[in-house]
Design brief:
Elements lengths: L1 E10 L4 E9 L2 E6 L8 E4 L4 E4 L1 E6 L4 E2 L2 E2 L4 H10 L2 E9 L6 H12 L6 E7 L5 H12 L4 E5 L10 H14 L2 E5 L3 H13 L6 H5 L3 H18 L3 E3 L5 H12 L4 E5 L1 H5 L26 H10 L5 E2 L32 H10 L6 H15 L17 E11 L18 E11 L2 E5 L2 E2 L16
Parallel strand pairs: 1-4, 1-5, 6-9, 9-10, 10-11, 11-12, 12-13, 13-14, 14-15
Antiparallel strand pairs: 1-2, 2-3, 5-16, 7-8, 16-17, 17-18, 18-19
Helix pairs in contact: 3-4, 4-7, 7-8
The protein binds N-(aminocarbonyl)-beta-alanine (URP) and zinc ion (ZN) (2 copies).
The site of one zinc ion has 3 residues, from loops.
Cofactor: Zn(2+)
Keywords: Hydrolase, Metal-binding
Family: Belongs to the metallo-dependent hydrolases superfamily. Hydantoinase/dihydropyrimidinase family.
Length: 458
């Protein structure tokens, strides 16, 4: 199969030019101008942006959590991702206490196989770090699972103590893996949650009030300090608070390899959303929680000046009707997470590029190139270059759409951005040379996505 994309504005993290992109099989073959050769299909991209496919390095599909399972599986979730201009995801496999990492990996590979419509990889969540598990970390890195998520929150479920965190960090110094950290002080939060419930404070807004910014900032500082002592890089996931960003900035200013992502929900929503009537605040129960609106500018500045290196979604959808409702009368029982896999590219383009907060190149860098580099996918993915996978998004920068649960494809009964108008819409998506979204219509296949073996840091 050969495909020629003509006359589009090709944008990478460093370039912007009008050109033609020739795809042969699964790869980009040539980039030029006025290319004309016999091909199976030609797409006219005049007036459109031709972007590297989005890479979302933080998703939770088919994940058991909080007494239920996230509402999108690998089929519905990856199809929704493709609609939104994302062509690769890195999801999380969970090692439960007493289990091997290998068992967790096989379980999640099985969840994805035959279902994923775009390419996928896995980070491994470690909840039980034994000597044997440390050996398994090395083996997994060799098999392309080159990053590990650790939790400083959720005591009794996911949380690891500092000694285990430090050991895991040291191990990545030997095997070339990367530690991703959920940085919130779980012990403090647990005390605050119990206290609030004892005082009869049960509404969704208390989820946010019991997870103060300082609990995130302290854990972020501690995570970076542990990584510094282990002499390895660290990646802070879903950073939400300006106070946590200060910790990352301070570390980077000292030359430390501290990296962090934020997510659209922290750029476009705020703790005001918890005041929505009735139980609607539950839509925004996620960890870390939404922060005061003034935080948004600080995060955008962090993105513009490279104190934050990636925008991922932390897509973890739960339906209001059957799932979030488990926390009626007790906010601590509301499953944590929100949908976002489909809306990331349009939201960030509209709220970031069109407002002048970030450049078009920086948009590509934050949503594709930089996550690809940090997580061992570059240059196979994350750019438009000869030899790279033909993961390409044809994006209409002038088209406006209204985000709504009624038109989006995530399998969840609400949308946190309901009614928001965005300009900048994914039109056509190519995943390893195959058109999967054709002018807004899904034409791909569940199961066509492949597991991506990622590279270690060396
Ligand atoms: N973020 C969230 O609330 N849910 C997903 C799990 C996690 O990323 O900690
Ligand atoms: Zn987390
Ligand atoms: Zn997450």
């Amino acid at each position: 199969m050969s495909l020629l994309i003509k006359n589009g504005t090709v944008v990478t993290a460093v370039d912007q030019y009008v050109g033609d992109v020739l795809i042969e099989g699964e790869r980009i073959a040539t980039i030029g101008s006025s290319l004309s050769m016999p091909v199976d299909r030609t797409i006219d991209a005049s007036g459109k942006l031709v972007l590297p496919g989005g890479i979302d390095v933080h998703t939770h599909l088919d994940m058991p959590f909080g007494g239920t399972t996230s509402a999108d599986d690998f089929e519905s979730g990856t199809i929704a991702a493709a609609f939104g201009g994302t062509t690769s995801i890195v999801d999380f496999a969970i090692q439960y206490k007493g289990q091997t990492l290998h068992h967790a990996w096989e379980t999640w590979m099985h969840k994805a196989e035959g279902k994923a419509a775009i390419d996928y990889g896995f980070h491994m969540i470690i909840t039980d770090l034994t000597d044997q598990v440390e050996l398994e970390m090395d083996a997994l890195v060799g098999q392309g699972v080159t990053s590990f998520k650790l939790f400083m929150a959720y005591p009794g479920v996911f949380m690891l103590d500092d000694a285990s965190i430090f050991k895991a960090l040291l191990r990545t110094g030997k095997n070339g893996g990367t530690i991703c950290m959920h940085a919130e002080n779980g012990g403090v939060i647990d005390v605050l949650v119990k206290k609030a419930l004892a005082e009869g404070k049960t509404a969704p807004k208390y989820h946010a009030l019991t997870r103060p910014v300082r609990a995130e900032a302290e854990a972020t500082h501690r995570a970076i300090a542990l990584a510094e002592m282990a002499d390895v890089p660290i990646y802070i996931v879903h950073l939400s608070a300006a106070e946590a960003l200060e910790m990352v900035t301070e570390a980077r200013d000292r030359g430390l390899p501290a990296y962090a992502e934020t997510c659209p929900q922290y750029l476009f929503l705020s703790d005001d959303n918890y005041e929505e009537p009735g139980f609607d605040g539950a839509k925004y129960v996620m960890s870390p929680p939404l922060r005061p609106a003034a935080t948004q500018d600080r995060l955008w500045r962090g993105l513009a000046f490279n104190d934050l290196q990636a925008i991922s979604t932390d897509h973890c959808p739960f339906c209001m009707k059957e799932q979030k409702s488990m926390g009626h009368g007790d906010f601590s029982k509301i499953p944590n997470g929100a949908p976002g896999i489909e809306t990331r590219m349009s939201l960030v383009y509209d709220g970031g590029v069109r407002t002048g907060r970030i450049s078009l190149n920086r948009f590509v860098e934050l949503t594709s190139t930089s996550p690809a580099k940090i997580f061992g996918l570059f240059p196979r993915k994350g750019t438009i270059a000869p030899g790279s996978d033909a993961d390409i998004v044809i994006f209409d920068p002038e088209k406006t759409t209204t985000l709504s649960v009624h038109s989006l494809h995530m399998k969840v009964d609400y949308n946190p951005y309901e009614g928001r108008q965005v300009t900048g819409v994914t039109e056509t998506v190519i995943s390893r040379g195959r058109v999967v979204i054709d002018n807004g219509r899904f034409v791909g296949r569940a199961g066509a996505g492949a597991f991506i073996k990622r590279s270690a840091r060396w």
